[in-house]
Hints:
- This protein is of the alpha/beta class.
- The protein is 45% helix and 14% strand.
- It has a single domain (27-298), classed as Rossmann fold.
- The longest helix has 20 residues, at 2-21.
- Residues 11-19 have low confidence and may be disordered.
Amino acid sequence: xxxxxxAFLITVFCLSAAINAQTYRYIKGWPKEVNDxxxxxxxxxxxxxxxxxxxxxxxxxxxxxxPYYLADEALYQYADDVLKKRNDAQxxxxxxxxxxMVKDGNNVGKPYVENRVHFLSGLTTEQIENIGYDCYRxxxxxxxxxxxxxxxxxxxxxxxxxxxxxxxxxxxxxKFISQEFGLSxxxxxxxxxxxxxxxxxxxxxxxxxxxxxxxxTIETFIKACPLVIAGNSRGDMDMxxxxxxxxxxxxxxxxxxxxxxxxxxxxxxxxxxxxxxxxIIVKCNDVVDPKIKFHTTDWKIRQNRPNxx
Length: 309
């Protein structure tokens, strides 16, 4: 009897120690009200035995997108530094794709997003990873939001899987994002393409994580109902509505009133819509660094609005 009691007490002690080990760490850049909500929610997930999944958008949600999306800067930087110095057929073809993208101008539209994949086709996965990583080191190092890094560290402490979704070409973002957050590159999902003999092709594998495609990506590749989803723009609405727990919106726009084409967001700004829906709204500092010269400026791509904190 004593042996059974001792074994029971040891089990209870071990379980208690495991639970107590999962301690919320205060996120310094966010107000107490936000921290209290996050801590309360994460503590409520402690008994959960199923997969605990958190999904984040990339640009503007986990790191800065001002003045330009990293995906655009990476491509235009590569064109200026490499392709314009060549005169072969492949270089001319890729530059023609960029001209088409500039003419399109809508760098959040699906045709533009698909053209990013077409531009990179024929390169190896390693080459594309390095194009993205070099751009990150040259122009975006230090733009990861410290609050989001602290929040993701908290989620890991509570046993969450972390997934990052981006409409940008997958290989372009995998190396630098996985290093910043200590993730497997498998957990960074972007626009996918067929790869043959180590080289990418222009055959895109749907869904692209853009607009409703982000919600479809969760069902197709992650295969779980996330307890935490974070985004920042109108394009994240469908993804955010997949959350089975909390929704976090970073630096939401409060200027543009959305139209009928935006469905339930019609008549609202992004911020007012998510306030109505009860999402947690947070601020992260995202402003231009005047010391950095962006190649994208010379290609006349529209700038993203700054979000000073």
